[in-house]
Amino acid sequence: MTGKRFWSWLAVAFGGLYFLLPLVGMFDFSMRMQRGAYSFEAYRVVLADPQFQQTFGYSVVLALLTIVLGILIVVPTAYFVRLRFPGLRPVIEFITLLPLVIPPIVIVFGYIRIYNTSSILPLTGSWWGTNILLLFGYVMLSLPYMYRSVDTGLRTIDIASLTEAAQSLGAGWARILTVVILPNVFVSVLSGAFLTFAIVIGEYVFAALLNVDSFGPYMVWMGGNRAYEPSALAVIAFAITWACMGLIQLFTSFSKFSTVRR
C-alpha cells in the first residue's frame, strides 16, 4: 500500500508541476517590466488602460446577461422535462451537447450567413442587433454547463412532491418555479453561472468574427503588440477563472454542510 501511495502522490506532484510551472514562469515574466527589479508595473499599465476597462466591463455585463437569459431558458426547460416529459431527456441532452461538438467558428459563420444585412432579420447590420446575436451565441455556448448543473440539482430533489404541494396551496407555474424550485437548485444554478461567466469573459471567436470589442479580442490584440502586459493580462484572466472555480467549490461545500445539518 505504501508503494502505491508513493506513486500516486508522485503522479499528483508531477501533474501539479506540469500545470503550475508555466504559470509561475508567466507570473515571473510579468513582474520584470522594470529592468533590474520586480514590480507590478505591467499590471498597473493594464488596469489603467481605458481599452481594458471598456472591454472588460462590456464582457462582464454580457456575461451577466448571458447568465440571466440562460437561467430563464434552462431552469423551466429542465424542470418540465423532468416533471412532464421524461422521454424527451435524451433529446434535450443531445441538443445541449451540440455546442461542445460543433466548433464555434462554424456556428458564428452560420450566424453571419443567416443574419447578415441582406437577410430577413439583418442583426449584423446594427450595433444592437450584433450584441443581441452575440448574447444568444454565448447562451448557446453555455448550455452544456448550465443544463448539466441544473439537471443535477433537480435530480437531488423530489420535484413531483414539491410541485403537488405548491399546487395544493394555489401556486401557479411561475410561482412554483421562482419560489419552490429555484431556491432548491440555487447552488446548482450558481455552479452553472460561474462556469458561464468564466467562458464568456475570455471568449474570442464569436466576438472577433462579429467585430465586437470585448475582453477576448483585447487580450489577443495585447498579445500581438506588447511584451510584458500580455503575461499580466493572462494572469488576471487565470485568476478570474480560478475565482469562479473556487466559488463553485465553496457554494457546493456550503450546500452539503447545510444538508447534513438539516
Give the amount of beta strand, in percent. under 5%
Helix content: over 70%
Q: Looking at the structure, what is the overall shape? A: globular
* CATH architectural group: Orthogonal Bundle
- Secondary-structure element pattern, one letter each: HHHHHHHHHHHH
Number of separate domains: 1
Q: What is the name of the CATH superfamily?
A: MetI-like
Our count of helices gives: 12
Q: What gyration radius follows from the Cα positions, in whole Å?
A: 22 Å
Distance between the termini: 37 Å
Residue-averaged pLDDT: 85
**Which structural category fits the helices and strands?**
mainly alpha
Quick structural summary:
The chain is mainly alpha-helical. It is 81% helix and 0% strand.
Question: How is this structure best described in words?
Answer:
There is one protein chain. This protein has 262 residues and is an all-alpha fold. Helices cover 81% and strands 0% of the residues. The longest helix is centred in the N-terminal third of the chain and has 34 residues, at 50-83. It is globular, with a radius of gyration of 22 Å. InterPro entries: MetI-like, MetI-like_sf. The chain crosses the membrane at residues 55-79, 91-114, 126-147, 185-212, 232-252.
Q: What would the keywords be for this entry?
A:
mainly alpha; 262 residues; MetI-like fold; 0% strand; single chain
